[in-house]
Amino acid sequence: AGIGKCVAMDLARRNARTILACRSRKRGQAAVQEIRAATGNPEVVLRLLDTSSLASVRAFSSAVLREESRLDVLVNNAGVSGLPFTITSEGLEQTFTTNYLGPFLLTNLLLG
Question: What's the structural domain count of the chain?
Answer without folding.
Answer: 1
